[in-house]
Amino acid sequence: MRGVTFSGNRQAEIQEFPNPQAGPGEALVKVRASGLCGTDLHRYRDPEPTDYITGHEPCGVIEDLGDGALPGLKAGDRVMVHHYAGCGICEICAMGYEQLCPHGHVTYGGGTGHGANADYILVPSRTLVHLPDELSFEEGAAISCGTGTAWNGLKKMDVSGRDTVAVFGQGPVGLSGTLSAKAMGSRVIAVDVVPERLALAQELGADHVINGLETDPVTRIQELTEGMGASASLETSGNPTARAQVLQCLRPFGRCCYVGVGGPATIDFTRDVIFKVATIYGSWTFSKSELIEIARFMIEAEVPLQKLITHRYSLDQAVEAFRNFDTATTGKCVFVMN
Length: 338
Ligand SMILES: [Zn+2]
Ligand SMILES: [Zn+2]
Fold this sequence. Notes:
Helices cover about 30% and strands about 25% of the residues. By secondary structure, it is an alpha/beta fold. One zinc ion (ZN) binds near residues 56, 145 and 146. The site of one zinc ion has 5 residues, from helix 3.
């Protein structure tokens, strides 16, 4: 089968791999869609090659099940993959947060296990979640990391129609944050430095957009909120300036959530946390049960997720797909397989 790896310094490569076989407890999934996510770019740009197949937003159809696979699964089922495997039995794994297993974990498509930029992906059957009929494979792929990450950050802050939410960064995760916060009923202020991203954010429902290169986001957010500040903010960019601004833009008793990975940032804790009585959350993707919850939310709230997906590629176009994603100004890229 085909599988996409990185050979270092922005080189994607399509390689031949042996067709995997489902062993005990495992499921072989025929990949129908695999999303490109921001964290893929870090490894794409890295000088170090990857041995494992890339792609950690897997969505497809069960091809085969090994002995002892979960009895609730059968060949032909449409599934998403909660793309981590920890020890599977500890307290944290039992919560469905296998990525936080204190005994270590594998990330499928994240450098420690083969991912979904391939014809097939082999995973423990316990990582699978059914993809509801109402969602396309592409939407399922998006939910499986980037979109779900944004949604879960908003859930942690218990965002609602009473909130004005500032979403920093309007890449695939930030745009998903804008879409999701709107669907939760909030007023949304979208912040980025790329005009095309802000235009798409507006199309996806942002009430206000701010270009951080032209306007100071903190000042503008205060203006838009009668001097109070946002009641909640979501940081998706990983940028050190944005990491400070998500706190600075908050009103008293506001809360913020960090989901974007990046380097260290300088925070004025006295001014922006203590004297504001702010609440800070961190969030890393979501649990397996939250993946089910997110899919249900997207259906029930009729979130127009397909509008987020702007670039579709076949697996044979992998080199081009990553080259474009590396420099893309807006939207989300997905591999679509038949
Ligand atoms: Zn991701
Ligand atoms: Zn564990």
